[in-house]
Amino acid sequence: xxxxxxxxxxxxxxxxxxxxxxxxxxxxxxxxxxxxxxxxxxxxxxxxxxxxxxxxxxxxxxxxxxxxxxxxxxxxxxxxxxxxxxxxxxxxxxxxxxxxxxxxxxxxxxxxxxxxxxxxxxxxxxxxxxxxxxxxxxxxxxxxxxxxxxxxxxxxxxxxxxxxxxxxxxxxxxxxxxxxxxxxxxxxxxxxx
Length: 193
Fold this sequence. Notes:
This protein is mainly β. The chain contains one helix and 13 strands, in the order E-E-E-E-E-E-E-H-E-E-E-E-E-E. The strands form four sheets. Strands 3-11-12-13-8-4 form a six-stranded mixed sheet, with no helix packed on it. The N and C termini lie far apart (41 Å).
């Protein structure tokens, strides 16, 4: 199981493989209502499952059988389980395999931010950066960190724009996954306890 591997390219168009360095501080913050900023969050629910169970058969080299189930906090009510078979590794890596499968599903949550410039506070937003977003229009009532996967820069003599495509940072780190939309204790600012 390969985790935290990010494929990108450098200024010479060479393919570069890097690893995510864990929890990082956001380099910029975006909110609804900021001038020349548009925030759109998309959620492909068809590709998300309520739980992922990984099963591994014992092998001929006396490797143990294994099973691990991980819950997806983005699908708490509808029961839509998924079972996958682990074909390599050991029973020790079954939990890691399940977490990787959940990370792949989390890529179906995208935050796309369009801005009218290439830099924020003299920092150019680049892939592999972390940004924070607060957008009640998109049900993000508190600040949420996103990992920048792609930035599309467009410019001419009239204007420069950037389109930033992000995913939840749990896609590329080992943090516990929490629902950024409806956690009444931390993220859903309108809910009173």
